[in-house]
């Protein structure tokens, strides 16, 4: 998928990070999953603007909904 296609589905990113040596850019999102865990979801785009990887992780144990 292209960056535009991903952003059309997910909306504006919460953060963005670039990796100049690889010419990649990553956009990240924070959310609460169905079980109340605070999570991060990230998509990395290559130099051609297409997704090359995705990543998600739980940030806390679900009992505390704060960052």
Describe this structure in words.
With 67 residues, this protein is mainly beta. The protein has one domain (3-58). The protein contains 1 helix and 4 strands. It has one helix at residues 3-10, and strands spanning 15-19, 24-32, 38-45, 51-58. Strands 1-2-3-4 form a 4-stranded antiparallel sheet, covered by helices on one side. Strand 1 and strand 2 form a beta hairpin. The longest helix has 8 residues, at 3-10. The radius of gyration is 13 Å and the shape is elongated. 4% of the residues are buried. The mean pLDDT is 91.
Give a concise summary.
With 67 residues, the chain is mostly beta strands. The chain has one helix at residues 3-10; strands at residues 15-19, 24-32, 38-45, 51-58.
